[in-house]
Specification:
The chain is an alpha+beta fold and 222 residues long. It folds into two domains: 153 residues, no CATH class; 62 residues, no CATH class. The protein is 35% helix and 33% strand. It has a five-stranded antiparallel β-sheet with strand order 7-8-9-10-11. A hairpin with a 4-residue loop joins strand 9 and strand 10. The protein is globular and about 55 Å long. The chain starts with a helix and ends with a helix.
């Protein structure tokens, strides 16, 4: 069993290394997924495979311009810790949210973050699911994004659920779930009941508790 796990890990590593990533990005991704510096290297192989496939999908996307983009790639079942000591500094990140940072249309690095983490110096923050859904359904698998596509991905849209028109409250989208109005704070990745704003939930944790149809409705708003 251990031999099989090592073989699968080697295949995943080679699949990423043979991609069109820059040498710098290859090393950073390897460090965070397969090296002894990262606890993610002990993760189940099926989860590693999901992360690898998501990275490969991102490699195909051609973003316009030179904006820094953060993509929430995957939410894992455990908190991951990456720590590497170099001659000049210590690199460290932790959390069960796996983020990919894209700079100048190139995948720059992977970082782990907690529920409140948001990549610094990014002009656009997306979830991988939203990006993939947009490319596959709206763009018909056209991976070349335009400035108009970016505007569409940035802008929350009003949708209908059970023939009830949703509204925007204080610039935050509102969605009705089981007859209850929820407000989505996209910038802070939070969701809360409109009539109970003191109790807030992490948006991505909350989404995972919902059925697939409601998940898709929320992702259209992000």
């Amino acid at each position: 069993m251990r031999l099989i796990r090592k073989l699968i890990s080697k295949i995943i590593s080679e699949a990423i290394t043979e991609s069109v990533l820059t040498k710098h990005a290859k090393q950073r991704i390897y460090d965070r997924i397969n090296s002894e510096y990262s606890t993610f290297s002990h993760e189940d192989e099926n989860i590693k495979e999901i992360v690898k496939n998501n990275i490969n999908f991102l490699e195909k996307v051609d973003f316009p311009g030179q904006d820094n983009i953060g993509v929430m790639l995957f939410k894992g079942p455990h908190e991951y810790i990456y720590r590497k000591q170099t001659d000049r500094k210590t690199e460290q990140s932790k959390g069960n949210y796996i983020w990919v940072i894209i700079r100048g249309n190139d995948i720059e690095t992977i970082v782990f973050g907690g529920i409140d983490y948001k990549p610094k110096n990014t002009q656009l923050v997306l979830t991988f699911k939203k990006l993939k859904n947009y490319i596959e359904n709206t763009k018909n698998r056209n991976f070349n994004l335009t400035n108009n596509d970016i505007s569409q991905l940035k802008s929350p849209r009003k949708i209908q659920q059970k023939k009830q028109k949703q509204h925007i409250d204080d610039n935050h989208p509102i969605i009705i779930i089981n007859g209850v109005k929820y407000v989505i704070d996209i910038d802070k990745s939070l969701i809360y009941k409109k009539n109970d704003q003191n109790k807030k939930y992490n948006l991505f944790d909350f989404i995972e508790l919902l059925d697939a149809k409601t998940q898709d409705l929320i992702y259209q708003l992000l």
